[in-house]
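Worked problem 6 (solution included).
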Amino acid sequence: NRVEFHAVNLDVLQRLFDSKGISHFDLEVFIENGLADKKDQIKILGRGELTARVDVKAHAFSASARKAIESNGGVATKI
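Solution. The predicted structure is:
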């Protein structure tokens, strides 16, 4: 009964923020940018550096990713 997550790292969020100005991430944004499919469950992982203030809605967060998002004034919301 293991849940398979599709991983998205902080450096990917930062790159999307820099290139497209996206600051609110949810499942629709991940799908539109080719990072996930409709049925995927997203887990945000802590690889890379995040300097932008972003709000992220995902199914799971690693502790380091949640800390990085919240330390920049963003919000990490579990859906």
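Discussion: The CA atoms of residues 13 and 19 lie 10 Å apart.
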